Amino acid sequence: MTLLDQFFHDQLHIREQEDRLRKLSHAGKGTDFCSNDYLGFARSKELFELISAKVKSIQPVRNGATGSRLLSGNNSYTEEVESKLVQIFKSEAALIFNSGYSANQAVLSSIPQRGDTIFYDELAHACIKDGARLSLASRFSFRHNDLNDLEKKISKAKGKIFIAVESIYSMDGDQCPLVELVTLSKKHNAFIILDEAHSTGVVGDKGSGLAVLEDFHREIAIRIYTFGKAMGVHGACVAGSKELISYLINFARPFIYTTALPMHSITSIDCAFDYLKNHLFLQDELQNVIKLFLQSIEKFTDRTQSKSAIQTILVQGNKEARSASLRLQNAGFDIRPILSPTVPEGKERLRICLHSFNTKSEITDLGVALKYSTIKLAKE
Question: Full-prediction pTM beyond 0.90?
Answer without folding.
Answer: yes
